[in-house]
UniProtKB/TrEMBL annotation:
One of its GO terms (cellular component) is nucleus. It comes from the Eukaryota. Residues 68-175 form the BUB1 N-terminal domain. This is BUB1 N-terminal domain-containing protein. One of its GO terms (molecular function) is protein kinase activity. GO terms for biological process: meiotic sister chromatid cohesion, centromeric; mitotic spindle assembly checkpoint signaling.
């Protein structure tokens, strides 16, 4: 997800100057992403004082949460899109990865559970929904259980990505 002005809480319209010392000091606490991270966003997040950062993140998270609630209540809206935006925003704005502060794992559990129960299986074959499950599987101790659950419940079974990631998880586990 590209960060929109409403969700990019650490930028203003001034030109961005990256303080590499901030990045150097925090590099061991930044979880790498396959898609990479924007250095300007990282610098802005890490150079903001903790109390101010939490305040800004809380306000932005609340706006995205409201979007999720609205999407769940409106039958014409797409709650999967709202959850996907919230998850992407959380991953981008909490560079330390899943933690109590980010609430990422709990968010993924909530999103996958709520979307499974809502809409009578409407999102089962949606690639975005599968990606939420795969991201969740990447953070649990035994991802094979998540992949088996997806297969049994026919979540993403028409996408090769499910089987490729399941095979990688089995390889990592030495099976």
């Amino acid at each position: 997800m590209s960060t929109t002005p409403e969700t990019d809480v650490f930028t203003d319209n001034a030109p961005s100057i990256v303080d590499c010392d901030v990045l150097e000091a925090a590099k061991e606490n930044i979880q790498p992403l396959a898609s990479g991270r924007r250095v300007t966003a990282l610098s802005a997040i890490l150079s903001t004082p903790h109390a101010q950062r939490e305040s800004r993140l809380g306000a932005a998270r609340q706006r995205l949460r409201i979007n999720v609630e609205i999407a769940l209540e409106d039958e014409d809206d797409d709650p999967l899109e709202a959850y996907s935006r919230l998850v992407s925003w959380t991953v981008e704005n909490y560079p330390q990865g899943p933690s109590a502060e980010s609430g990422l794992i709990e968010l993924l559990e909530e999103a996958t559970r709520v979307l499974r129960d809502e809409g009578e299986g409407r999102w089962r074959e949606d690639l975005r929904y599968l990606k939420l499950w795969m991201l969740y599987a990447g953070y649990v101790e035994k991802p094979a259980i998540i992949y088996k659950f997806c297969m049994v419940n026919e979540i993403g079974t028409t996408h090769s990505l499910l089987y490729e990631d399941f095979a990688l998880a089995l390889e990592k586990a030495g099976r």
